[in-house]
Amino acid sequence: MTSTRRSLLARASTTAAAGAALAFPMVARAQQTFSWKMTSAYGKGSPFYMEGPGSATDLAARINAMSGGRLRIQVYGAGELIPALEGFDAVRAGTVEMNHANSYFWTGKTFAAQYFCAVPFGLNFQGMNGWLYDGGGQQLWNEVYAPFGMVAMPCGNTGVQMTGWFKKEIRNANDLKGLKMRIPGLAGRVYAALGVDVKLLPGGEIFPALERGVIDAAEFVGPFQDRKLGLHKAAKYYYTTGWHETATVSELLINKAAWDKLPRDLHAVVENAAAACNVISEAWCQRTNAEAMEDLVKNQGVIARPLPDEVVKRLHEVTNQVLAESAAKDPLTKKVHDSYMAYKRKYEAWAGYSEGPYHNKILAA
Questions:
Q1: Strand partners, 239
Q2: pTM over 0.85, yes/no
Q3: CB within 8 Å of 123: residues ≥ 6 apart
């Protein structure tokens, strides 16, 4: 063997060894496993939120399967690890890595959180997804949570919700005055402006409060989940005008420091599993709500009707006032508000050509 050939082989061997050494940490990192905890604002076994297609447990199972077991998430229902509505603080502190809830629970922390869950008289399911995924909403969501050291993304949607259950008939806006009502989010502020005594209760506390007369009215989600709680046994008037939550997003809240430790491929796993649950959960709601509403009206003696037009008009007026006042107080909220409303105007114009004719002409034919 010539000296030149021996030199070339030696250099090649050295280069290969160096390449293998450099590659080894990458392989080791790729195989690193993570064990996270995820809490929920909803009790263990709660349909849609904790059990079933698109739920928190389904999300965790999908992440585990898609990651090949490299990211395992232990799911805790409300009260198992922390109280129902303390997920924001737990994720912020790093006590848990994830929380599964709705961002309007955190409006006391930052009002802008409301826009990433449900805005009264706002976008529907298709429009909300359009704003979040393709209209800048997702980026704004993370910008809002950046000061708290968190990121978030949509991981479920109920579609349009119902106004809720009332022990007495609502004929005009004056009938709302003095009512004690369980209602979260911005809608609670709107009702309060009309004289409602607003209560924020976790799902598991709604039925006993309504049954005992601690509250006079309650909103939860929709026919299937409301029936599951037994709300139809405590009140018979079921108002269907879902003005307050036209498409309610489930939020996957993640500690930013923990998120940054995940390899990029696991970021993609989480993001795609959450996006799948977002669509799958809403599809599940369409079937189950249709079946439950039929049963409630036909077999359970429920009186289902829309709110009077006068009441809806007044609610809309107050909603616009509350939103304008809140946006004026905080530059970041205004930034989110302006983005949401600009997208809403464009979407409504397009829906006038697409969804509008479908509902007004095709379904009515």
A1: 164, 305
A2: yes
A3: 130, 131, 246, 247, 340, 343, 344, 347
